[in-house]
Amino acid sequence: xxxxxxxxxxxxxxxxxxxxxxxxxxxxxxxxxxxxxxxxxxxxxxxxxxxxxxxxxxxxxxxxxxxxxxxxxxxxxxxxxxxxxxxxxxxxxxxxxxxxxxxxxxxxxxxxxxxxxxxxxxxxxxxxxxxxxxxxxxxxxxxxxxxxxxxxxxxxxxxxxxxxxxxxxxxxxxxxxxxxxxxxxxxxxxxxxxxxxxxxxxxxxxxxxxxxxxxxxxxxxxxxxxxxxxxxxxxxxxxxxxxxxxxxxxxxxxxxxxxxxxxxxxxxxxxxxxxxxxxxxxxxxxxxxxxxxxxxxxxxxxxxxxxxxxxxxxxxxxxxxxxxxxxxxxxxxxxxxxxxxxxxxxxxxxxxxxxxxxxxxxxxxxxxxxxxxxxxxxxxxxxxxxxxxxxxxxxxxxxxxxxxxxxxxxxxxxxxxxxxxxxxxxxxxxxxxxxxxxxxxxxxxxxxxxxxxxxxxxxxxxxxxxxxxxxxxxxxxxxxxxxxxxxxxxxxxxxxxxxxxxxxxxxxxxxxxxxxxxxxxxxxxxxxxxxxxxxxxxxxxxxxxxx
Length: 547
Prior knowledge:
Elements: H1 10-17, H2 44-48, E1 50-52, E2 64-68, E3 71-75, E4 81-82, E5 84-90, E6 96-103, E7 128-132, E8 137-144, E9 148-154, E10 162-167, E11 175-178, E12 184-188, E13 192-198, E14 205-213, E15 222-229, E16 232-239, E17 243-249, E18 258-264, E19 277-283, E20 289-296, E21 302-311, E22 317-319, E23 329-331, E24 347-349, E25 361-363, E26 371-373, E27 377-380, E28 395-398, E29 403-411, E30 419-426, E31 429-438, E32 441-452, E33 458-469, E34 474-482, E35 489-496, E36 503-504, E37 509-511, E38 522-529, E39 536-545
Antiparallel strand pairs: 1-23, 2-3, 3-5, 4-25, 5-6, 7-8, 8-9, 9-10, 11-12, 12-13, 13-14, 15-16, 16-17, 17-18, 19-20, 20-21, 21-22, 24-39, 25-28, 26-27, 27-39, 28-38, 29-34, 29-39, 30-31, 30-38, 31-32, 32-33, 34-35, 35-36, 35-37
């Protein structure tokens, strides 16, 4: 995980707060990074097409990426959002859909329940996703709060993952390798890079040792990804937030390792965005290699970009550049035709069925007794507060870039006096449009000035800056977000009483582009009480559109 123009680690930030040449060889990988599968016919359409970066214009940082058979999966950080560690799925490395989450709930202490404390910018940081062919099981590994490392497993990414073990070592910024002989290793650390060997069942540590100390001339290295390729062991490392390095060992997972620079201050493909870095490597069914990195692109967050990799004759990875920069576009990976089209990251959700789809994440853990899905999302008030940052059961959705619009249809007929419900642009400086019920009267309002300090304590609970009276039981609320990186950008709010004609409400809200909160802005649906519990709202439709 990283930020622009910073050479310090996330550890220190959190403590303060609380032209390359193509090579001749195409090596083979071990383990699930390129899990074994027979070569498949390549779609002519895929060979002829090209893709444009970013491949995903939503906030997915600290990416790990693997292939299992003909399917690609990637994972990302989520910090205080629950469930954590989303898993995305693709059949071509370019078009992605939500598949599930590796961490079903943040059961790491009361602060993740907003119970007497808060877990903002804690929780799930850079972690690792892999697949073990010997038992046909997916593994997620990550440390929480610099305290312990947790491993979750599932036989399919869509299913409910379960905790396999807790290890009393914090594998910071870890990468999980499943070697040719099925042994599990973890590379981890900041500046001092270590390797741990796990027991055969993956439940405990057998051995650990330091394998590399970063020269002071480079600065900090972290974000480990661990590979076995063509008989060599590689640890892929990032220099936040403008460089990428790689360690190579020809003598096994514990080294010794030799260091080489992969990129430094490389111009990125997103105007106003940062240098591509961190992320991971993956091999296609046909032997080609790709590097999925991310660029810092606030106010929207950190967004994935993809570039082909080749290898020098002596076994070092090189990024294929376009005019001495990470390309804005490349030929689409030559892979088998997908079995189906993936579900778009934008579109309409009418909350059918009885569960939320994996595109949704709560701000901290929800109170599951206070919400339900049944032909609509019902949010019963779960917190009495005047501070949205303390309100439980705030449901978030990533913002689609470069610009997008979120609209909700809200039935507010069961609200109680003192209740507040609506649609926010949520980060450490926030604003919202919503419904206030006071003394039996219902108004639609725009509120801004919700703020946190650099320790993520609330410094402003918001000021109502515009309002209008409404009647009836339904209202449509809309937020328009511009998350083009490089500067602070506007967000605007509007409402409708018929779902067709929308009226702008309040001034434009400025979404800042500083990195310090790490997670980007999100759309957030909320309902909380300021007087007493008992009220509820029903969201019957959510629509996300992007030009």
